[in-house]
Design brief:
The chain is an alpha+beta fold. It has three helices and four strands. A hairpin with a 2-residue loop joins strand 2 and strand 3.
Length: 126
């Protein structure tokens, strides 16, 4: 029994791999998860088996990518992660004087907000 691996179109970091093999003059599309290999279907030609394996892997990768994007969208619907990354990038590109001024501005805004909260609390306590 000879097994020939025809195509191994697999992206790094993915958990599922579809590939084609030939065994006893028959062509199969197989799926593996790194632990088990399971033959999915027998096909009449090597080229067809390679194409089906490639298309299945492509569909898996696209679905996986869509799932990650959708999960990010659900976890951060307002886009705060992107906004934070943009602000950090802007801060990294500033020179030292601009960084100091920006930090002072942020600290001043924070202290002003804290003072407003303290005043409101003291009004409630009267």
């Amino acid at each position: 029994m000879k097994v020939w691996l025809h195509s191994r179109k697999f992206l790094k970091g993915e958990n599922i791999l579809y590939y084609s093999i030939s065994k006893d003059s028959k062509y199969y599309v197989t799926v593996t998860d790194g632990i088990m290999d399971v033959p999915l279907m027998e096909l009449p030609s090597k080229e067809l088996a390679d194409e089906v394996a490639y298309q299945l892997q492509l569909a898996w990768n696209e679905g996986n990518s869509w799932g990650r994007t959708e999960m990010r969208r659900q976890l951060d619907p307002e886009g705060f992660g992107k906004e934070t990354a943009e602000r950090l990038q802007k801060f990294k590109t500033m020179n030292e004087m601009d960084k100091k001024n920006y930090s002072d501005q942020i600290i001043k805004q924070y202290k002003t907000k804290q003072q407003q909260i303290r005043r409101q609390i003291s009004r409630w306590n009267k």
